[in-house]
Amino acid sequence: MNSQCYAVAMDLGVCQLRNFSISFLSSALGKESASVRVDNSSSGASVVAIDNKIEQAMDLVKSHLMYAVREEVEVLKEQIKELIERNTQLEQENNLLKTLASPEQMAQFQAQVQTGGSPTGAAQPPVPAGPSMQNSGTSA
């Protein structure tokens, strides 16, 4: 164990954090911080230098996290935009289907919804699509 680390848990934790910060800086910032060494004399200048390096490392981590969060926010905004567009499309389709459905079909649908049945169940006869159904009903 390094001579500046003490048996007290708090001092030991601080010492380990400083040693980790120095090794982190060495790997993250490259050769610039590789020359940082812990001074066994524990002078005030070395503590300040280490604290500065810790602050630089924390700023680096913060900037990386902020960048990642900004990217995630952009992805989520795009997903929200796509979902809003899809919702609008489905609402328009739903309104169109409601206007094209006959009152009997709407009543049957409402009855199935209230009983919890499937609106596409086997009891429902198939509905022909298009205006041919309307024309055949008026010619009889």
TrEMBL record:
Coiled coil segments of this chain: 66-100
GO cellular component: cytosol; nucleus
GO-annotated biological processes: negative regulation of apoptotic process; positive regulation of cell population proliferation; regulation of transcription by RNA polymerase II
SUPFAM superfamilies hit by this protein: Delta-sleep-inducing peptide immunoreactive peptide (SSF58026)
Compartmental location: Cytoplasm; Nucleus
Database matches in CDD domains: ZIP_TSC22D1
Keywords in alphabetical order: Coiled coil, Cytoplasm, Nucleus, Transcription, Transcription regulation
Region called Disordered, residue ranges: 108-140
Source organism, top-level taxon: Eukaryota
Any Pfam family hit: TSC22
Segments of skewed composition (Polar residues): 108-117
PANTHER family: TSC22 DOMAIN FAMILY PROTEIN 1
Similarity annotation: Belongs to the TSC-22/Dip/Bun family.
Protein name from the UniProt record: TSC22 domain family protein 1
Organism: Amphilophus citrinellus (Midas cichlid)
